[in-house]
């Protein structure tokens, strides 16, 4: 390295030490891959998963979270996990988490649950995913007793998944923040699960939609536990989903400190209410994220 290059590089590094963490990524040091939750483009994935993934890559997405694993057939989007992994490797892409179907096993025996969790572990290992995520319980299951039962099951699953060398997380919606006998479902989950076994995936749309607390306040109470984020916007009128930048959530002010969160992966998402089409919404959200949010990530 010649003296001119050395001085120039030193000046940049010296300036970087004076910048806040969010500004440092402006120098091209983004730490996290831009991820997408594939439920957002479920109709396209059902028609042609390979073409859809390639199109998402062109938009700038590098990482994905999938949904819809068929444990009985051992297939994801019609592929075995190993086949899907080869496709992703060829495209230099990854799937770091999956939303697996746990809701049907909430009230089944521990042996049945253990069997299906083992199927999920096999799939996640084949994909080289780090996390298995519990995404949802059915409306009829949302009772005080069931939140307690689910917390017990979350600990069991967390232990099984962690012993397999993988991570396990719970994804929130809005119903967890409703009152169930003087406490919220979310409080029950937080208080009755082992933070070492059960990590959290924060859906920031639902926190802003339904919680009385902000993402930053939630993280202050459980620092290091929110290892994944879902980032999506809220329609200004209907409060339904919207493309990033079109809605009412000011992510410049509400995004927490990734380090305090324990963040490892984030995924943009839009479950519906598309302005034009799911793929156009994916492209619009990608552009907004690259221009406005990646400076924080």
UniProtKB/TrEMBL annotation:
The keyword Plastid does not apply. Keywords: Isomerase. One of its GO terms (molecular function) is isomerase activity. PANTHER family: HYDROXYPYRUVATE ISOMERASE, INOSOSE DEHYDRATASE. This is Sugar phosphate isomerase/epimerase. The keyword Isomerase applies. InterPro entries: IolE/XylAMocC-like, Xyl_isomerase-like_sf.
